[in-house]
Amino acid sequence: MFKGILLEQGEGGKTIASLKDIDDAALPEGDVRVAVSWSSLNYKDALAITGRSPIVRKWPMVPGIDFAGTVEQSTHPLWKVGDPVVLTGFGVGEGHWGGLAQRAQVKGDWLVGLPAGLDAKHAMAVGTAGFTAMLCVMALERHGLQPGDGEVLVTGASGGVGSVAVALLARLGYRVVASTGRLEETDYLKSLGAESVIDRATLSAPGRPLAKERWAGVVDSVGSHTLVNACAATRENGAVAACGLAQGMDFPATVAPFILRGVTLYGINSVTVARAPREAAWARIVRDMPMDLLDRITQVVPLADVITVAPRFIDGQVRGRLVVDTSVV
Q: If we measure between CA atoms, which residue out of 231, 221, 233, 225 comes closest to residue 250?
């Protein structure tokens, strides 16, 4: 028996979220069982818990798209009892029970070893959001972006992906401009390394097909008009890494930035990344993400508080990363 957040469907398809005692026999199929010590609350988790978006594909569901813990049982050749492991993505928390619980059972192919230099708590301070931010940075680097090339825009900067992206890019020497809807977080963002902070309102309304060239690169977790305007103001042969849809999943754009300026738009899918690039991204995080900044980005909440925090997360009232201590129920 273990504690976990369980999502069930009520009348009219309403999502009912509760903290419950769950029998081990209810765990889904998987060749590795993990004692989960830390998880995190992500935007997708909050949508699933509140039922504001059809994230859940199978009922009932334990949400939580990432977790870190220790192998309890394994029939997978890569993992043995006692191994510290991390999971992000692969549909956990959506179509397969996830990490907002004290125990998880998954396919061993989805796991990576806890990176040397990180404990489980810090691994979840990174979590899916930080892992995605690192993939964005690596995409811009592969494109050829270098620190002396000019300003790099990070949208949704006070959120999880944005906060880590700001810190990573600044640590690597880039001139970071942070866009946020919460200008009261300006000092926080500058403490992470942002050179300047702009109001998201300057990007979130419909704009022109092309704007004055400004950004050498962009990390966007917002989508919709914000992504369109970021592309429109990206410099010739610049690059944009898109990984989120906080404003919306629409893309009301023209081809102008792409065919007139040679702008490249990279789509970042962190869910099904293969093992080798997944491990490479985690290694880069250990190397390039300062632990003091990671602590500054992070807030810890007990598993018992996740359901009440989720609506605040969606409404933009939470900054940085929310790490979940599964032992506190």
A: 225
Could you give the CA distance from residue 201 to residue 226 in angstroms, rounded to a whole number?
Answer: 9
Average pLDDT, the chain: 96
Verify that 158 and 56 share a domain, yes or no: no
Check which CATH number belongs to the domain holding 321 and give it.
3.90.180.10
As a residue count, the chain comes to 329
State which residues form the domain around 37: 2-114+296-325
Rounded to whole angstroms, the Cα distance separating 101 from 305 reads 12
**Contact between 102 and 36 (Cβ < 8 Å):** yes
Tens-digit pLDDT profile for residues 228-237: 999 999 999 9
Asked if residue 247 is part of any domain, the answer here is yes
Over its C-alpha atoms, the chain yields an Rg (Å, rounded) of 20
Please name the helix (run of DSSP H) or strand (run of DSSP E) that holds residue 213, with its range, or none: none
User: pTM value?
Assistant: 0.94
User: Based on the number of CB atoms within 10 Å of its own CB, is 205 exposed (0-12), middle (13-18) or buried (19 or more)?
Assistant: exposed
